[in-house]
Amino acid sequence: PTPRTGTPTPRGPGGPPPVSGRGGVGESLGVQQLHAAWLGRAAGCLLGKPVEKLELPAIRTLARATGNWPLTTWFTARGLPPDLAARHPWNRRSAANSLAENIDGMPEDDDLNYPLLNVLLLQRYGRGFRTADVARLWLDQLPAGRTFTAERVAYRNLLSGIEPPDTARHHNPFREWIGAAIRADVHGWAHPGDPASAAAQAHRDAALTHTGNGVYSAMFVAGTIAAAGGGADVHASLRSGLAVVPPRSRLAVAVRDAIETARAHQDFDTVVDRLHAAHGHYHWVHAIPNAALLAAALTHADGDFTGSICRAVSGGWDTDSNGATAGSVAGLLAGHPDRLPERWTAPLKNRLATSVVGFDGIGFDELARLTQEALRP
Questions:
Q1: Does 53 reside within a domain?
Q2: How high is the pLDDT of residue 377?
Q3: I need a surface site. Which of 140, 156, 187, 243 has the fewest CB within 10 A?
Q4: pLDDT digits (tens, 9 = 90+) for 297-313
Q5: If you average pLDDT over residues 215-228, what whole number do you get?
Q6: Is 5 a domain residue?
Q7: Residue 340 belongs to a domain
Q8: Residue 19: what pLDDT?
Q9: What are the tens digits of pLDDT across the range 129-169?
Q10: What is the pLDDT of residues 263-295, one digit of tens each?
Q11: CATH number for the domain including 157?
């Protein structure tokens, strides 16, 4: 993409004016838009799964060795020299179902489980749900063994009788990590064209498990997706996402800088190197570096689906989560499953594995229909 200039000017937590367009305040997203967003989320997540936890040099080495750099398609072990495979092993839990030669539908992942749970949340409690309702739903529907980091601590706190929002604070060193952001899609889908309401809804969800920048990251994602659902392009959507988080927060500063960096450099590897130099002191699951990378990837790809998920994953850190959210945004912008490249959607085989009770094996078309029903005001 052509380098761009100018820094978006964020507003305070009250949010930007509504974005007019395809969705619009008070309207609902179409089932095909939701279908594309779900497929995009799944494809981006799956792309990032085999390299989750790998450091950036290892990701680049593995992809280059198989002729897939810059990243344009699924990772593969085919043709990979044995010494490189031994030096940089794939994610042990994911290689068996996420390398190109092994994909057979969408395997279970928390990046899909949580949005699915939030569809159930709206079915059960509506948009006026409370944080305590999120907790109740988790205890009913989410196996404890499928939770990680901040979510696992909050779950344990619930079982110990601690109530929200103390669940997010008590003995929780992960409370500013990425977990709340991967739950935010449904909140954006629920409010097309109204980023402020989407962010407020995401805040109530995130408060169960996160504080500070962990909550802001969920608000940023929800606001971005709400604007995209309202007809904004990717750049206006990101500005709207920024506008619903505190402008002087570390997350907002990092995202603004990442967008400017992406605008200033044609080579995305250069963008990533600069982000890692700026944020490499954070844990690889922390919300701040991952939000910055997500914003840079979406900016640099200029709305292109393949470019969005590949840039998000090729930047390292939490690869499957960033790929998932980038795919969700880009899929929603595409607006229809047929506008997504078949090489990304066909291997999913319209099948999602999940431990959320009653939904294992559901098709993405059916999931989109159920989501649309749950989102109705």
A1: yes
A2: 81
A3: 140
A4: 999 999 999 999 999 99
A5: 98
A6: no
A7: yes
A8: 36
A9: 999 999 999 999 999 999 999 999 999 999 999 999 999 99
A10: 999 999 999 999 999 999 999 999 999 999 999
A11: 1.10.4080.10
The total number of structural domains that make up the chain: 1
20 pLDDT tier (thresholds 50, 70, 90): very low
Domain with 166, as residue range(s), is 31-375
Nearest to 294 by CA among 266, 267, 248, 330: 330
User: For residue 154, what are the contacts with CB-CB under 8 A and spacing of at least 6?
Assistant: 135, 164, 167, 168, 172, 208, 209
Q: Is residue 110 part of a domain?
A: yes
Place 175 in a pLDDT band, splitting at 50, 70 and 90.
very high
